[in-house]
Specification:
Layout (H helix, E strand, L loop, with lengths): L2 E7 L5 E7 L2 E5 L6 H14 L10
Antiparallel strand pairs: 1-2, 2-3
């Protein structure tokens, strides 16, 4: 699979989510105190991402 979400623990012990495409990190989230919160972030991105507008600030 060329793309995936990864949940990992950072050096501070917080859970973070990163989205990778072809092993390149496209974005990463803030840190969360619980793994469940990180999983909720993934679900929110999946649900709300397709509806998100594009803002061109160029």
């Amino acid at each position: 699979m060329a793309h995936k979400f990864e949940i990992y623990k950072d050096k501070a012990g917080e859970f973070r989510v990163r989205f990778k495409y072809n092993n390149e990190v496209i974005f990463a989230t803030e840190g969360y105190a619980s793994k469940a919160s990180a999983q909720n972030a993934i679900e929110s991105i999946k649900k709300n991402g397709p509806e998100a507008p594009t803002e061109d600030n160029s």
